Structures are given as structure tokens and as C-alpha cells.
Amino acid sequence: MQTLLQPAPRRETLGANVLFQIKDLLLSGRLMPGEQLSLRSTAEALGVSVMPVREAVYQLVADQALEVAPNRSVRVPTMTREQFKEITDIRLQIEGYAVEQATLKATPALILSLRSLNETLAREMDAPDNNKASIVMLNKEIHFSIYEAAAMPMLLKIIETLWLRIGPILNYDIRAGSERTQNKIAVNHHIKMIDALEQGIPAEARQALHNDIKGAFDYIYAKQFS
């Protein structure tokens, strides 16, 4: 896990940077359900004392993105099938609304950036020894670039909270090298979503997002909760 972290800059926002990096591990699915998070190892990887790491971790515990096990270790929560379905149902509504709002505000620069990210994602999926960590990060960056374009900070915070909880399981199919990854299913959904954003058609953008979310849900639900 140490190799996933970068030393935090030493400035007044040290605590915020530590929190940001741990959040990013969860949001991008680079920490898996049940995986323990060592405060000391994390602090060493970030080049900071244990104190800001402890503060960040316990903030995430309060947000239910992490949990304290009976032996007092900190770990990524596991998820039941009921929780996974509930969060997915909420995501369809919340993220669908965000995409609709982004469609009304999308700029040519955003469209260009999204297409570039999605093309990079497709190349990574085609690579013989594809970098699964990079694929996971690109997928997350595409989605959050769109949600940020909605220009609704409170809505973005709600989406982040949902992803903090679901992120560790969300990219199971990518990490498993599934047919969805091999066939670049997510890339195709993204193309349709970006096209709708460019054309200013909120309903089509929302439908493309729904297809993307539901496709991942169906695969993970069948593989992880069968």
C-alpha cells in the first residue's frame, strides 16, 4: 500500500492532504473490502507523523468509509448485497441528476478532456499487461470530471460520500480482468455519455450513465454476492 501514496507536502494544509490521499485510495478502489490500514505504515509512506493520519482515518470512520475492528485495527468495511444494491439505487438517482446538470453546463474544453481521458482508458484496457491501477484511476477521473462540471458543491460531496463507501468494491470487474474490461464496455458507455454532453441532451447522458452503473452492478453482484 505504501507504493500507492505520495509524500504529503509540508504546509498548513498537511491534514487536508493526508485526508485527500486516503480518500483517493478509497474512491478509486485501490483499497479492497476487509483490507487493514496501518496508521504507522501510512504515515511513513506519506512522510508525516502518525497524528494527521490518525485524524484523517477517524474522520473517515465517522463517515463510515472505514471502520474500527474488534481488535482496534482500522480496515475497509465489507459490504452486504443489500447495502450494495441500496447504494447503487441511490447512485443512479444522484449521479444521474449530476450528469443532467453537467450536460447543461458542459464546455468544449470539458468535452475535449473527457474524450482524451476515455481514449487513454481504452488504450490501457487494450495493453497486453494493462495497468489495472491506472484503469481504475482513469475511470474515476472521467466520472468526477463530469460531476464537477455540474458546479454543485453539495451534490459533489454527496457523490463523494457514496463513492467512499462503494469504491473499494466498485472496480472489482476491472481488477479481475473481466470481459467487461476486455470488451471495453465502460469505454463505450462513456462515449455515449460524452456525445450526449456535447450535444446537450441530458436524458441521453443520464441513460448512458445508468447503463454504465448498472452494467458494473450486475457483474459485481453476480460474482461477489452469488
Report on this structure.
The protein is mostly helical and about 230 residues long. The chain has 2 domains: about 1-75, Orthogonal Bundle (Arc Repressor Mutant, subunit A); about 80-225, Four Helix Bundle (Hemerythrin (Met), subunit A) (Up-down Bundle), CATH 1.20.120. About 70% of the residues lie in helices and about 5% in strands. It has helices at about 15-25, 40-45, 50-60, 80-105, 110-125, 130-150, 155-170, 170-175, 180, 185-200, 200-225; strands at about 35, 65-70, 75. The chain has a 3-stranded antiparallel β-sheet. β2 (about 65-70) and β3 form a beta hairpin. α5 (about 110-125) runs antiparallel to α6 (about 130-150). The protein starts with 13 loop residues before the first helix and ends with a helix. The model has no long low-confidence stretch (mean pLDDT about 85).
